[in-house]
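Its record is retained below.
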Amino acid sequence: MPSAAVPGFACATTDVDAVYTTAVAPELIRYASTPNGLLSQREVDRLRRYVLDAPDQTQQEARQQALFDAGFGVLSHRPQSSFAPPANSSTVVKLGLFAWPVLVRHDSRVHMRNALSFKNWDTALLAEVNAAWARTLGVHSADVCSVAAVSVHRLTDLSPLILQACLSRESRRLASLAKCSDQDSNSSPTVLTSTDPNQWQSAEVPDVTTIMEPDRPEVLLLLAYVGWDHWRPHPTCQTYDVWGSARMSDLMTAVMTYGQAQTPVAAPAGLSVANAQNVPPQRTPCKPHILLGRPQPMHDAITQGQWLQLAGMCNCAMLSSSEFRVSHVQQGNLLTWSAAILDDEGDLQSTLRYTYDGFWRPRSHINTIYQNSDPVQCSSQMPGTRSDPPLH
């Protein structure tokens, strides 16, 4: 018989009460201290602590890369397109966001949009772009969904959490399409035109232009969602197959060709002054010089796009026998790059400067940019004004 309760004292808990309490008490969710487990908590402070707690710089770089790799691939339904998927293929795939750097240089000063959405592109043109992606990565065209071309400077602040969130959003969109295709057949892919989640768009991309100087090329990242069998590693660039790169180079040359106004000419004889004002100005095509990088997972392609632009400036300086300088300054987590082309008298001809959060970038990120923008490397990588082959 249990003893009676003594006033002022709590009754002792019996074994039965302890078992009952344990059975009904909610269990807290336990997360593994792995990159995937940390990303699933969606807490930036935990991710930063995971990187900072590394015992040495080598381990810190390995953790930075591991977080990006973990956020890069998510499970998804196989993307649907006008192409038939491969026979006997699984409907569940891994989905990743790939980027293909494209260096664009014009011989004259032009205004260029630094973000292009593919939503309203001609169906045949978009199919050709997807086919070039597929041939280069060794996948089927049905597993590629090209979405946009964005300036590399708009994406340098990319973090593992932003990358995972963007892919998760696209995975949910594909799942919705698979469940009720009739209702959501017109939904647009997630377009990452900024590393601010509030600016992710599924429709139009903001029309923002930049002035492109002849000696300061721009680099756009072609963004595409790519699916692959979930038990296999992610696709890589097939260097032995040059058709895809050559075809993409031709397509981007056509897309980036601008119409440049000619010098005004006198009105044809016999045409009144009023009617002469209605004659549209003559325009000549301004064909760009295109140089392709290698398609890679987006977080790796950003570094490639950065050094590709600096190497392009270096090459322009070498062609004009000018001096090229590049440097970086890190203040806390902010990383600032500066590049300049100087004439024989030391006067500035062209400059480039931009800043971004470099916390998530390993030390090798900076070293890679310096190594590939070195004048010795530029002379072998850049084709100058010749017909520009792919960078393979």
Confidence is low (pLDDT under 50) at residues 1-22, 261-267, 384-392. DSSP finds twelve helices and 14 strands in the chain.
